[in-house]
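Exam review. A common question shows you a sequence with its structure tokens and asks you to describe the fold in words. Practice with the pair below. Do the first one on your own.
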Amino acid sequence: MPGKEERESGSPEPGLETPAIHALAGSDLSFKVVRTEKPRSAQESALLQGIELGELLRTIVVRRDAGDYVLVLVPGGRQIDWPKLRAHLGVSRLSLPDEREAKEVTGYERGAITPFGSARPWPVIADATVSKLNRVAIGGGARGLNLHVGAAELVAELQADVADVTRPENER
């Protein structure tokens, strides 16, 4: 597919040395690095990678309290269901940090946030729909850089808490 470059896991090639790639280089997680042009939307990203929208995971930073965050893995075409997430975490209030704060706590700019190589290892919650997928794409630490990985292996590597915390984007 035009605009797409793939590379199997192992030593990162020059130009692909994000903290995420570096963090995974020594792990047992098998992944494929897929580099595309910088997409303008989740739909375009999925198309450029040759995957279904629901296989594309966005990493959303959620603030529980001052200095306390969780990373939520949200499949494309879905959005956080705030009442479900609050109930799962046992809190009455959650918020999204602004762009500056999100970069400060993860080391990544919006559109490139990933749990791998984050400035600090925050707890990860994977939506329950992730466990129904075979392979997924997750950010590799730069826009247009994704990691294709087995969904079950991703959840295990991240020690993610799997919970029903999203809903389809068109559902209220």
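Now try the second one, then compare your answer with the model answer below.
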Amino acid sequence: MTSNGVPPGTDEQAPSAQTQRNLLGDENHKSFRRKLGSLAIILLLVNLGVGLFAREQQRTLIDYATSIYDKSFASTSQHLQQPGEPDAGAMLRARDDVAALAHRSDLSLLITIMTSILLAGLALISLDRLVTSVNLSRAQFSAALEGMPHGLCMLDRNLRLLVCNSKFAAMYGLDGAHIKLGTPLQTILEHQVATNACPADAESFMKESFASLSEQSFGTTEHQFRDGRIISVTSAPLSTGGAVAIHMDLTRRRKAEKEIEFLACHDALTGLANRVQHREFIENRLAQLTQGASFTILCLDLDHFKNVNDTLGHTYGDALLRAAAERLRTLVRDTDLIARTGGDEFSIVQTNTPRHLAAAASLAERIIAAMRTPFDLGDHQVVVGASVGIAIAPCDGTKLDQIMKNADMALYRAKSDGRGTYHFFEAEMDTKAQERRLLELALREAIVSGEFELEYQPIVNLAQNRISGFEALLRWNHPTRGRMPPQEFIALAEDTGLIIPIGEWVLRSACAEAATWPNDLRVAVNVSPLQFRNKNTAARIASILSASGLSPNRLELEITEAVLLRNDDATRNELHEIRSLGVRISMDDFGTGYSSLNYLRSFPFDKIKIDQSFVHDLTDNPDSIAIIRAVAALGKSFSMVTTVEGVETLEQLEQMRAEGCTEVQGFACSKPVPSARIAAVLEEFGKLAKAAA
């Protein structure tokens, strides 16, 4: 078949032109008008000839009569009038009457001829207008017929073709010979069968076609053709006998309907069941549960999927989701259902498993193993993983929302346990989930009610033996739980996105406070990776600095390598724009990630902050001091300041000084203090520095 549905080798233009000729009959109409005009002219000439001949005969007769009168009058004038004979005057009057009669006859005949000519002309004009009107009507009918989006054919009472349009001819690959006036329906159908423009059962198709067009009633039949097309034929009887049929190609419509029906209950990207079908499936299983029966729901998501999306882009992210879906299909039975319920979230409903606990655990292990295997995505190989949460009905719930919530809580526990594992739902998870929800509500209220405050911990320059700045540390004064350190709520704030308004409040408050300090003191503020999702971070920081009056070189932003995990130009450009303001950028928690050295090359940090875990392990792990020494040397080679966190004793402080670290921070110098205590801390540290000197 060609792209427009015409069988190969069919000349589509020829049927169209032939059909036009059959419909309009232009040549026949022109010939008819010529013959009509010729006939009218001939009739006029005959009428004129007959009239002239009659006039000539009449004139001959009158002339003959006049000559007789003239002879009679001459003869009479030679002889004396005899009594009883007509006198000469009477004869002259009779002759004049004959002449007058001849004149009137000529005039009447002329009028008759002229009237005949006028009437013939009017008749000719009327006939011409009638023919023109008929032609116009036929042209309009033809235009309407050819403008139809479907094929149409009209048959007489003997099922012979009266008229059809070009779409009908093209639909079945009919050439000029098959659409002539009077072509039997049998011939058209036989051609369709010969060219495979018919259903698989050709015999039944022909019988149905004859029956539908023979019956004097409306009807619609739909056929699936051998070439895949779906054709609908709607027939209606004609008042004069015969029928008219409209042929519609429904292939695209039926395909679109199937696609819409499929997409209504399937995920467009992976072809798996979507949330709608997933919910219906579970509801049906819950309704069909019998005594002792059960089924299992396994909720899973891909570990580190977001990193793939952020670093490689959504195209590779979509390819990963499709590949993961294919692997999941190989792990389940036909009776199970796999659904994609979110971005990188999937759910499997496992049914008909006698030993449901063991079967669920076995499937979860196979899922984790399958997802751990590297994915080849064209020119990239991606390693992710999966965490799985398991809930069993009816033990863990008899309602859809309840059992889905429990499976999600089990998934959350699996992710909290380090990812790459599975966890069954336990009742205590619900209690913890409720507590987390209450904490989230309280956190939202804290933003509105102003329950946050900042404390500041000194950062000491070892070479100069002075406080070079303070790090702003967030505290939450919970109305019932009291003072809460950030480790108890920051993770929740990041999960819910509340870290963005909280982080902006911290930045504004810290800058406003630091503006009141001596000009040689800096303030360090931690910035969450989520705050860099908005592309106007640099503009917001500039606005905050302007509003607070703090010099940009006195602000130090501490970021973790998570900010750079996306490895995109937009983030790096944002950091460069912030640094161009004069703001200093520090790499926080250095040494705890897996690729921090690469990030030191990708961005010119002003400072490296060595994580406090290395200081805490100095006694138990001798390698920690080697790491601190190496990082200090690395910072020196990069012309970066190195700050060690978590220094709690004077011994540790002196050890950091000996290893070449630039700054220290920790309880050995001072605990975090409220802003009101900063002046006192500066004074006390100054006295201690003088005493030590």
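Model answer, second protein: The CA atoms of residues 533 and 674 lie 31 Å apart. The chain has 22 helices and 22 strands. Full marks require stating both points clearly.
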